[in-house]
Amino acid sequence: METIPLKDKYGYMFADLAKLGKAASVIDETNVYQEANKSTRPLLDKMLEENLLPGTKLEGIENFKDFLAQIKNGKRGLILMEHYSNMDLPAICYLLERDGGEEGKELSEKIVAIAGMKLNEENPMVRSWAEAFTRVVIYPSRSLANLSEEEREVEESKSRKINMASMRAMDKCKREGKPILVFPAGTRYRPGKPETKKGVREIDSYLRMFDVMIFISTNGNCLRINPEKPEDMLADLIHPDTVIMAASPVMECKKFRNDILATLEDYEGDKKVVVVDKVMEELDKLHNQYRAEYERVYKETTGEDVDIDQG
Q1: What is the pTM of this model?
Q2: 44 near 130, Cβ under 8 Å?
Q3: CATH number for the domain running over 4-302
């Protein structure tokens, strides 16, 4: 199926996005909490409507509803989700509202996503895209890699201030009954690069801060990283696709973590890494549970075999 760069197919929308944009272009400790700018959301929904093929659906709706019910009963809720593209967050919110009934709409409204600074600071159009959804912005630890000693000293100070403010903002969201959505890999998966699907160590800390969680898997992706320009988000490739997003049953964070740690009494390595690896393993299991169905529906819809490695 033909693919078209995002900026070529939807460049005509950029002027409107720019006019509607309100989010800060530079992140510091004063603006890490970014409330959704709902005026930009219809443009993203339009992109999804044009590129989500028949057969696109939400699986495990009863799990989403159970998760919402537990949050409303006072539990602190965490969503751990696979990450393939910048359409992941727009798609899950869109499908919750389309397929999840009143509970799905309510959950979509409550979600607060953890997002890296790059989405705000790299490009005005990417920023306008991201601000359609409520976020707590963080300074990712991987951004400190490959810096000179002088640069690292400045950036580490900046990262501490931003991330301390982010933790306070996230704590406030939890107290207000808002679930936090995290992509545990911390970056989008690049086909053929398994290291981009490895969970970041910090996810262990999230498990200790929340009461209940669900995993969300994604099969299918209508916005794919351009292998020729992988760092240019506006060069991402539009690829109409069937998308199946699925939720696991609700799990207790403490039990999930403690069950893993109980097997590691004599383990001398980094136990946090083992816990995070188990998170990624569970996401893979959920992904594979729906993989065959995705491939079948995609072929029925397009007459073509799936032509990209989705993990």
Answers
A1: 0.95
A2: no
A3: 3.40.1130.10
